[in-house]
Amino acid sequence: xxxxxxxxxxxxxxxxxxxxxxxxxxxxxxxxxxxxxxxxxxxxxxxxxxxxxxxxxxxxxxxxxxxxxxxxxxxxxxxxxxxxxxxxxxxxxxxxxxxxxxxxxxxxxxxxxxxxxxxxxxxxxxxxxxxxxxxxxxxxxxxxxxxxxxxxxxxxxxxxxxxxxxxxxxxxxxxxxxxxxxxxxxxxxxxxxxxxxxxxxxxxxxxxxxxxxxxxxxxxxxxxxxxxxxxxxxxxxxxxxxxxxxxxxxxxxxxxxxxxxxxxxxxxxxxxxxxxxxxxxxxxxxxxxxxxxxxxxxxxxxxxxxxxxxxxxxxxxxxxxxxxxxxxxxxxxxxxxxxxx
Length: 341
What we know:
Number of strands: 14
CATH superfamily of the largest domain: HIT-like
Number of helices: 7
Strand order of the largest sheet: 4-5-6-8-7-12-13-11-10-9
Shape: globular
Structural class: alpha+beta
Order of helices and strands: EEEHEEEHEEHHEEEHEEHEH
Helix content: 25-40%
CATH class of the largest domain: Alpha Beta
Distance between the termini: 32 Å
Number of domains: 2
Largest sheet: 10 strands, antiparallel
CATH topology of the largest domain: HIT family, subunit A
């Protein structure tokens, strides 16, 4: 059984006026990980620098002269896939192009471009461009499985703008596979196995079913994907998409990727409505035929890429390990739902 646990504690302080006030803090436990987060309601009264309006594009957003991902330099400044994986060296689908990461994070590490647009503001990309890039990632990972069946720990991620960890403005996905599990892969594999052994059902399917039934954090669907605000977020305005019944990219079809792209862009448009311009995306895959984990995508907004904007991670997150966010997930869902209408 999944437990959606939350409890409220209070802090009592004297305001400068002398008034005694009670400040509530809600502590929620993530039903999947067991990690806690804190919703500090009083901080929503703060004026967050740089989020009143969407910041202007970075001052160098029009400078393509040194971008290795732009078409003029792509062929000469990016590496090629070894022939054992792909005879052409680069994989193309529509306007998307995939090639190895020049600075790899694992045994198989690649970059999947959307198109030749050098700077794309959040929420303005085309659905087809995203779908083609995802499909490129899928084909690359399937080729890896055929080439190295032990490289089962896979991920598709995105860092939009330097505030989210992006080193290049030109939009792209990162895709990788390895024989060695990351911390999150290792945890999810164990958690999925334990949950299935105890309940004979899959943890993300049950999570999605609970949230759809509860309704307070459920946002909507794009085809077979169900979208919801995370119950115990580990990032600001964290949104999950869950594809119940699909536990492997081997089972994914082109419509699944197109529907995922639809939900990702809707989430981006929601983030844009909050005057935020950076975000992270992640899909973790364990291709071991275990059938325990449905596909899930996680999206979190990041601090704006603009001068003098405060980081979204403080000493509390880095040193204590608890996310301290300001907005209840129920409010996040309420504000996001119009983008699914």
